[in-house]
Amino acid sequence: MHPSRTSTETTSLNPSLSPASARERESFLVGVTAPFSPGCTRFVKRLKSAREKTAEVIACFAVSDVFVMRAWGEILAVGERVMMLCDGLGELTRALGVSLNGAVKACLGLGVRSRRFCLASFNGVITNVDFDEESDFFPVIVH
């Protein structure tokens, strides 16, 4: 994905996370390493309370396909609260500088993945980025 393009929401094949949707509100963009993995599932479940507290928009993405992200969202019962997005080729992941090479752990055979992180923005301006240190697969920095 080119940095000027957007991910595709899993409920349709049309781009839905545009710069306009992030304006005039607090938003969170969350990257996860592997949908359905125990650590990433816990990470997304914690997002539900964040939405209730302050965020108007929460989007979760992974280097995966639209069908996996849709199924994972259904199992997690995130409904409309969390947009489940895919970054099929890992272009957004690389553009954000959060890519990991899952092939390092040969037994997993994951290839390029996103580090687990949460990016907060207000009115379209990034205000904070935190990385999850409890990675299932990789050593990741900071809280």
UniProtKB/TrEMBL annotation:
Residue numbers spanned by region Disordered: 1-20
Catalytic reaction(s) noted: [glutaredoxin]-dithiol + a hydroperoxide = [glutaredoxin]-disulfide + an alcohol + H2O
Annotated Redoxin domain residues: 12-133
Enzyme Commission no: 1.11.1.25
Active site positions: C40 (cysteine sulfenic acid (-soh) intermediate)
Pfam families the record matches: Redoxin
GO molecular function, one term: thioredoxin peroxidase activity
Organism: Rosa chinensis
Similarity remark: Belongs to the peroxiredoxin family. Prx5 subfamily.
Cellular component aspect of the GO annotation: cytoplasm
UniProt keyword Oxidoreductase, yes or no: yes
GO biological process, one term: cell redox homeostasis
InterPro entries, A to Z: PRX5-like, Redoxin, Thioredoxin-like_sf
Keywords: Antioxidant, Oxidoreductase, Peroxidase
Enzyme class, broadest EC rank: oxidoreductase
Presence of keyword Transcription regulation: no
UniProt name for this protein: glutaredoxin-dependent peroxiredoxin
Transmembrane segments: none
Listed Polar residues bias regions: 1-19
